[in-house]
Fold Copper-containing nitrite reductase.
Amino acid sequence: MLVLAGCNVTEQEAGDRAGAAGTDSETGTNGGTGGSRAGDFGPPQGEPIHAVTTAPPLVPPPTGRDYPAKVIVEMDVVEKVMPISEGVDYTFWTFDGTVPGSFIRVRQGDTVEFHLRNMPDSKMPHNIDLHGVTGPGGGASSSFTAPGHRTQFTFKALNAGLYIYHCATAPVGMHVANGMYGLILVEPPEGLPEVDREYHVVQGDFYTTGRYREKGLQNFDFEKAIDENATYVLFNGMEGALTGDNALTGNVGETVRLYVGNGGPNLVSSFHVIGEIFDKVWYEGGTNFQENVQTTLIPAGGAAMMEFHLEVPGSYVLVDHSLTRAFNKGALGILQVSGEENPEIYSGLEVDEVYLGDRAQANMDAVAQAASSASAGDLTLEQQVAAGEALFLGTCSTCHQASGEGLAGVFPPLAGSDYIAEHPEQLPQIILHGMQGPVTVNGVEYNSIMPPMPQLTDDEVANIATYVLNTWGNPGGRVSKEQAAEARATNPAFASEGH
Ligand SMILES: [Cu+2]
């Protein structure tokens, strides 16, 4: 007979648990929390408290309370244009003006009075469904709010855990795809173990009419959303929200806790931090934890908490381990850890440029500037080269290296390449159509495959080609966007895709 210890929790036991240490720190399990039946600690006590909410990636301080209170949460719905990638704008619909919306932190047993305002300049009505609410619609039916209106409803947070909230106004998939989600943490009565740093990150999938990184203001593409064919998969609503100057930070010797949600609307996340192992994962945002985890699955409309101790300095890369989402759709973030090297645990050589490409750079200003200058029709050679360099890193440097030297026997050099010197006009064609078959560069024969990169815009191809021509002793010259467009229409003999 299979005996599941602690599965049958009496109300008495469940009540006893309130205020007592919950999860067994040795095993990550407990005798059962009693769920919602054990989550009502009576009427709110003391003066009402105005919740401290925080914009991503910050997390409000612990409630620090040992009694249930009335907590007032105020949230604004704001529709606004923000960058989704450098040089790419998108009309986001948001809670509190950020994607994800503000992080809410309450304690199990708290009575939450929720105020939702929809800004007068909004075009749409919105509402909120908090997965931490017990009651039909999670608040949605009580919070339908037209532009210029405010609504209010109250709920008791009966279940501890980390929960997604989102807009649930029809078409729901569209409201969520436009960025309407965030996290609410309902602390267990005893609180969570103290850590040195806490951050919050929410993944989301985005669907734009233009291609990935196609410049300008992009519209929502409902067909792509229905097909679940995301153009971007992002942490915190913008490519670069957690890289460069925006990277998360920590120090060797510290313990970090991440609160990670997945707003969706569609894709499930295989959340992983390259170079770290989660010491603990409170999978699905629930009460029990698993230990020593590489990758944790975060469902759309779900969440997880994870903790890890930092031993070695360097760049740790947050990814959705469905990897083309990370490297070709934007699902990348960085945790930058400072401190003493620890060669006994890890010796050596950082690889974040290869992993991150252009996103390892502090900023992509040159690209954004080039994009705006290009639309104004006045791009200088210097701007083209600067923008091309930023794009080269990550697009081409993965194989040809940032130095342009290539890798002996595998990837031919672009630096001082006699092939480029003899065929400078082929550069945009090689970029757009790839290359295969034997090619001799500086006396060495290569016979491999370079993949085509038609996802690059004509501007991007022109800038990368111009950068390559004007760097590492190559012959100079300039490629225009019109030449890139012509190259796109050609069918070169060396192309690596069948035309
Ligand atoms: Cu909405």
In short: DSSP finds twelve helices and 23 strands in the chain. Residues 93, 126, 167, 169, 175, 180 surround copper (II) ion (CB under 6 Å). Residues 1-22 have pLDDT under 50 and may be disordered. The radius of gyration is 26 Å.
